[in-house]
Write a structure and sequence with these properties.
By secondary structure, the chain is mainly α. It has 4 helices and no strands. The chain has one domain (27-91). The radius of gyration is 19 Å and the shape is globular.
């Protein structure tokens, strides 16, 4: 993995560079995902939670992020969360 820092000098310290795992998806898989409705996405996430259990999700560290979500998908999360008495952010 190479450093993206500009003007950092010509010497590179391999110990200071961090390696990250990158999941690669096929173009076919991405095209299929883009066609999913908000309801299909929510169903997928529910199935994921059932398989992996909420304890896996709740025990992991949290990180504040910012992301854009289609409005209809966000509304679906909010509606589902309200029906279940939960915060919608924890379901995303």
């Amino acid at each position: 993995m190479t450093s993206n820092a500009k003007g950092a000098g010509s010497s590179k310290n391999p110990e200071s560079e961090k390696t990250r795992v990158v999941q690669e998806f096929s173009p076919e898989y991405l095209a299929r995902c883009q066609k999913m409705s908000p309801e299909e996405i929510l169903s997928f996430l529910d199935q994921f939670r059932r398989i992996h259990g909420n304890s896996v999700i709740q025990k992991s560290k949290s990180k504040l992020i910012s992301m854009k979500v289609p409005e209809d998908l966000l509304q679906a999360f909010k509606t589902k969360a309200e029906l279940e008495g939960m915060r919608y952010q924890s379901q995303i």
